[in-house]
Amino acid sequence: MLIRDAVQIMNKIAPAELKLEWDNPGLQLGRLNRKVTKVLFALDLTPEVVAEAVERRVELIITHHPVFYRKVGRIADDEWQQELLLTCSENKIAVFAAHTNWDAAKGGVNDVLSKALGLKNIKYLDASVKVGRMGILPETSLEEFAQKVKNVLGLAAITYIDGGRKVHKVAVCGGAGMDLLDMGMSQGCDTFVTADIKYHQAQTGAYQGLNLIDGTHQGTELPAMQDMLTKFAKLSGLECLLAKETRIMKVI
């Protein structure tokens, strides 16, 4: 199989047209006509991931987060991400990203997160954007549900904001999803699970009666990488590996 074929398969799994306007998924680096036999899946292109890719002799790294979000004027080794790309290039490793298109895709980040948390009757939070989901579960306390989120995502600690309501109708958005706060409230959700919640956003939720749970950016997105790998392996028949990702944010 060629890199070109792998890109086509990923566009079936996470169609490029689902991406948000500001996003930059797709092939970040690589020759389309180069052969690929082994693929490494990772949330981010980090020094650890690149070192693992070189050691395991893969020809393609597929990440969730793109390396580039803006036009690049130069590539040099005095910037850490560009140094990683140079290392990939020198080792003939292509890099591909599926970001907000994977968030929005059927079976993508937010479907995986919703199902992992036990939500039923899962629907789009906003059908025009498609990156968020909402669903219901048997009524429970916020403390019990926050503990469940912590356990499901394998977190050492979790932050939650009490809006004064029981948990029954839940909105989710893996990664930084607070742009969907108003949509969650307008849809009648009592709880919103997302990441990167800022202090004043927490105030808005709490004083307008919406529970908020911060499952961390990495924590809410990592579960979907195994699902991406499984889908790609089934369609491609290639050897697919999941990176040994380290937690960037730690607690003591």
What are the key terms here?
alpha/beta, elongated, 10 helices, 6-stranded mixed β-sheet, 252 residues, 5-stranded mixed β-sheet, single chain
Separation of the first and last Cα atoms: 45 Å
Number of strands: 11
Helix content: 25-40%
Biggest sheet, in brief? 6 strands, mixed
Indicate the structural class. Answer: alpha/beta
Which range does the strand content fall in?
15-25%
The tally of helices reads 10
SSE sequence, one letter per element: HEEHEHEHHEEHEEHEHEHHE
Summarize the structure.
This protein has 252 residues and is an alpha/beta fold. Helices cover 36% and strands 22% of the residues.
Write up this protein.
This protein is α/β, with parallel strands linked by helices. Helices cover 36% and strands 22% of the residues. The chain has ten helices and eleven strands. It has helices at 3-13, 47-56, 80-90, 100-104, 109-116, 142-153, 181-186, 199-207, 217-221, 223-236; strands at residues 26-29, 38-42, 60-63, 94-97, 120-124, 133-140, 159-161, 167-176, 191-195, 211-214, 239-242. The strands form two sheets. Strands 5-6-8-9-10-7 form a six-stranded mixed β-sheet. The protein has a five-stranded mixed β-sheet with strand order 1-4-3-2-11, with helices on both faces. A hairpin with an 8-residue loop joins β5 and β6 (133-140). α1 packs across α10. It is elongated, with a radius of gyration of 19 Å. The mean pLDDT is 95.
